[in-house]
Every structure is written in structure tokens, then in C-alpha cells.
Amino acid sequence: MAIEIERKFLLRNDDWRPHIERSERIAQGYLVGAQALHSGAARASVRARISGEQAWLNIKAATPGIARAEFDYPIPPADAQALLATLCDGVMEKLRHHVRVDGMLFEIDEFLGDNVGLTVAEIELPAVDAPFPRPSWLGVEVSALGRYYNVHLIDRPYRAWSPAERAAGDAAC
């Protein structure tokens, strides 16, 4: 079983942009998403994701904390397109930028559509207590705040957040 150990942060500024190695557009939707998780009807999220000419089916445990069981399976892009078009309650799009700092990869997601204006950095770690670089553009950690999880951003996008919810993240940076 694969375990994903991931920490998520807001950004203080755009100083990371000159260090982008590559970027990709991602579209994803959830077959089992936030509503099922909130109601207790599901113990995992299930999503389809397309990036370029590749696609995946992903299953991620709905457990609190930064370490979760995760299973990722490549699927034909046509299958992913069909899943997004017919079985998902919504599709989220984002630009994912790859930025390496001291040999470690930060994936910076710049959300589009109903989530435009939200940008977060994620870093996957080999252990829960693994050290990692903290560049000056890295802001407050939001790993434990469910509203920043992709699965929740489809049901309650960033544009629907109250000014207080947005300000809470901004003030912490």
C-alpha cells in the first residue's frame, strides 16, 4: 500500500515564479467526493485526472493528518474524459508548476475557473517528520484545513468563500 505524506502551504508572494521548471494543465473530478465523505458514506475519495496525454484513477483515504493511503492507476485518457463528463459532479482545472528548492520538489497549484485566485504549494515527503526547505515565498501551512483540499474545492470553490475565510489565509501569510 502506498502512503502519501504531503504538506500544503499558501504562498506569501510570486518569488517562486522565476524558478518554474515546467508547468502542466490538470483537469480532475471526483467520482466519490466531499459530500460522501462528509456524510460518512465513503472512507476515501476517488478521482479521475487528466494531464496532457496521460490520465489516472486515484483513490485516497479520508483520514486526517498529512499521511494517507493513496493508490494511483494509469487509465486511458478517453476513459478519464468519459468519467469527467458523465460520472463526476464537477471538474476542477489548475495549472501545476514544478519548482525545485534544495533538491526537493514543490508542486504549486494555481487554480482556474471557480477557484481562480487560490494558489497553494504542496511538497511530498518520505516521512512525516522529514525536514524540507522553507523558501521565503512559502506561507502558512494549511495541510490540516479541509477547505483547501481539492476534493472540497469542487463542492465549495474559492469564489464561494466568505471574505473572512479568505482573509484568514491571507493574514497568516
Number of helices: 4
Strand content: 35-45%
If classified by CATH, what would the architecture be?
Beta Barrel
- State mean pLDDT (0 to 100 scale): 92
Q: What does the radius of gyration come to?
A: 16 Å
- Find the CATH superfamily: Hypothetical Protein Pfu-838710-001
- How is the main sheet built? 8 strands, antiparallel, barrel
CATH topology: Hypothetical Protein Pfu-838710-001
Task: Catalogue the unreliable spans.
Answer: none
**Elements, N to C (H/E):** EEHEEEHEEEEHH
Structural class, judged by helices and strands?
A: alpha+beta
Tell me the distance between the termini: 35 Å
Q: In what order do the strands lie side by side in the largest sheet?
A: 1-5-4-3-2-6-7-8
Shape: globular
Task: Report what the structure shows.
This protein is α+β, with helices and mostly antiparallel strands and 173 residues long. It has one domain (3-172): Hypothetical Protein Pfu-838710-001 (Beta Barrel). The chain is 18% helix and 43% strand. The protein is built from 4 helices and 9 strands, in the order ββαβββαββββαα. The longest helix has 10 residues, at 77-86. The N and C termini lie far apart (35 Å). The mean pLDDT is 92.
Quick take:
With 173 residues, this protein is α+β, with helices and mostly antiparallel strands. The chain has helices at 34-39, 77-86, 150-155, 163-172; strands at residues 3-11, 20-32, 44-51, 54-61, 67-74, 91-101, 104-111, 119-124, 138-141. Helix content is 18%, strand content 43%.
